[in-house]
Amino acid sequence: MAPKQNRRGFLKEVCRAGLIATTGPIVTAGPTDTMSMIDDLDRYDFIFARVRFEEGQPFGRSHGPDIWNVRPGGDANLLDEFSSVIRCKVKPIYNTHEWQPQYASAGQLNAVVTFEDFETVKPYPFLFMTGENYFKFTPKAKSNVKAYIERGGFIFMDDCVVGDGTDYFYQSARVMLEDIFGRGSLKRIPLGHEVFRNVYDLSDKGLPTMQHKRMEQLGLPYILGQNHGARGIFVGDRLAVFLSSTDLHCGWCDRSGVYFGSNNYRQSIKMGINVIMYAMMH
Question: Rounded to an integer, what distance in angstroms lies between the CA atom of residue 244 and that of residue 189?
Fold first, then answer.
């Protein structure tokens, strides 16, 4: 009997062969550098691909400066911690330090994809999205989100808390996901779910929250940001989308613990590692 192939290996073989299941529509938009994607997938055990998307509503109006490629140092810290715990080979990110730079330049993210072009997302079993502002996907992009999820893909979405404390990114994600998968499809992830306890046991407190610690340090009487708990889209028993409103990505940036404290940094990293491990095991 042939050895059982893991999900990542299967998806890599699918990409190499140019094969994808034909359930539902796929909308593409132009050629991509497929060979470089395949080279990276052969070279590394895990790649943390970021989704590029347009922000601002209406007509480019935005509520905060942080857009889709904000703070690559957070990605770098998470990947460094992940590879030290899991002992796997991840694609490194260079020339970043905690909160700097504010926006990633070429080469400072593992990979950049867009749901406007299914060929860019197809090779990657795991995608990450973050931002401060409203966003709205086109019908083409939403169709590709559905196709990606139904083929076994996983999306980790995290709200980057805007200065006035409002959860614009989270609300946009909620509307988009329920438009794609149906009203009520975005469900609270129970604390007993595997994603809270597969590597680190976070099931007692659930989703770590970052911004409240910063407000305590500043002596302000309110909490910046909103905690809706971890929400997800399930395909059968499989968690396919993990949506957070608590700014985990900013937690990953704060390795020195200056803004949120060292414990909050550790908790945000643990949650990130748990999410990655769940995605790669299912």
Answer: 11
Which structural domain, as residue segments, surrounds residue 183?
37-281
Q: How are the residues of the chain apportioned to helix, strand and coil, as percentages rounded to the nearest 5?
A: 35, 15, 50
Q: What does the DSSP 8-state code read for residue 112? A: E
Is residue 22 domain-resident? no
Give a yes or no: residue 20 inside a domain: no
pLDDT tens per residue, range 227-257 = 888 999 999 999 999 999 999 999 999 999 9
**What single string gives the DSSP state of each residue in 165-211?**
---HHHHHHHHHHHHHH-TT-EEEPPTTSGGGTSSS--TTT-S---H
Report the CATH number that the domain containing residue 212 is assigned in CATH.
Answer: 3.40.50.12140
The two three-digit tokens of residue 227, written as one number: 């905690």
CA distance 271 to 198: 10
Q: Which residues contact 131 (CB under 8 A, 6 or more apart)?
A: 53, 55, 66, 67, 68, 70, 159, 160, 169
Residue 31 lies in a domain: no
Residue 80 in domain: yes
pTM for this structure?
0.83
